[in-house]
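Quick entry, no commentary yet.
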Amino acid sequence: MAAEPEAFVTTHPAPERLKRGTLNLAEIAASTMANIAPAMSFYFSMALIASAAGVASPLTIIAAAIAIALLGNTVSQFTRSIPSTGSFITFIGKSFGPVTGLTTAIVMSAGYIIAVASVVSIAGGWTSDILAKYAHVHIAWQILTIVITLLALALVVRGVALSTKWAGALFAFEMLMLILVSVWVLVHHAGNLRLTPFEPSHLASGWKGLGLGFPIAIYMFIGWENSASLAEETANPRRAVPRAVYLSIALMAVSYILFAYVTVVGYNYNASALASETAVPFVVVAQRVLGALAFLAYLAGFTSIVGSLIAATNSQARLIFNSGREGLLPAVTGRVSAKHRTPVVAIVIFLVVALGLVYGFGWNLNPVAFFGDAATLGAIPISLVYLVTNLALPFYYRRMHPAEFSVLKHLILPILGVAAIAFPLYELIKPGQSPPFSRFPLITLGIILVGLIYAFVLNARDRTLGDRIGSIVADAD
């Protein structure tokens, strides 16, 4: 048989591995919840949810939690079969082939970098506000943003165990503050506690109100997939990662329901006042009840943002790293630090590009406004990948593990997952939105087209890509 033309064959060095077995279930679950960042996510979402769903906003969060749990099933089923640092890129590439996997590498990397740019910007903005309010010191948010980002970078490159412990500690402090404030508010309003927020009859505009608030509630959970890309550094990832996914979703759901109830109670069940709030409603409630001790709510926001930045960088930069070592992205992104065994190049690229987006497009904007814009734009490609991953699960198990195929786990639940994510995705891309949101679908389409062109060209040059996607299994030698 004639040899394949040299143009279609590429020789690759042995891929570098991360430090295996470093993390346990508690650590990856804490990292996942730190990535979700309940304080940050809830603070900037509750007024929007209330404007759509009214007093019964907690019902919207319950519906969103169920939808996210469906997505959690998909990632868990994939991880039980092929735990991979590549996460969604591996899952989609193994199911639909190299072109789809390559395109996913571009789309997912872009989505995550844009989304983390929102966290980078608000890190400086929130810190600047705290210093001005409580220390009467005025430092430009642009300066604080780069300082915090560089500190996060220095921590993350020193090792996943160290940085994950920091993220977990910041998350624990954040939750402690939020729960303390919540309990204090409930005690203060003890004579006026009702189940009104859980009654469907109090949904604004009926079930339509739940539907309008549903997309916003969904995006409060983004980051739930964090643990999947930490699989290589996790002991027993096939068991630990699915548990971390479900545990994180459940705990965040309970927390969000509590915080939403507290906020509604704090506004005396007045959804109009809550929805029209220009400040952060939860913080406003804390100030009314705690006075000067509302500083705890501000502090929870700070630790939430910083913890999210650390956890997101740890997890999401590893997708870029894994793509580099498997040949989907330039090989330099697949390098690790000899001393700390961390994907230092991918981490630096991830944060430097995010910082560039903040300074390039958000320098003259209010950081809260940029946060909303970047988070919304980043959510579109991320949600699209969620949807495709759900579609991939039945194909993967039918082809790779037909004897293990379950109609419920591998067909019905992922189809429900497609439906669950399709609605909020449509709300983000539907026609008729005002600028800049009207431009976001076109930007996403541009990212997808770049990814497709890149995929077709690279796949034509290297026919081994299909074999190398997902070739590095987290718990295999």
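second:
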Amino acid sequence: MNWLTYTLVGLAAFIFGIFIFSFFQAKKASIKLETEEFKKNMRKGQLVDVRSKQEFKSGHINGARNISIQMIAREYQKLRKDLPIYLYCASGSRSNRAAVYLRSKGYVEVYQLKNGLKNWNGPLK
């Protein structure tokens, strides 16, 4: 094999390693809760909608505050570390990214609505 083959194999292994690392990091960043359990516990902590401001205005869970995924790096300090955080978005992908970020900043009790609002069966404000 030539140097190009070794380089490509090494690069592929590196990218695969990053993918695996990211997957496990995201998996341990938060606990995903089914709708009923999320409803039952969300009032015990801070309820955060990480969708855009426009999405939030079109309908959100009562009591939620809007910190969009684009603003989480600027506004995460508004969240208390001594209270659990309950995150949701439309499908779960943005709340997952927010959970990873918050864990990296030292937040330990982070929960997500599994599959986001598409599985929500409660009222929206």
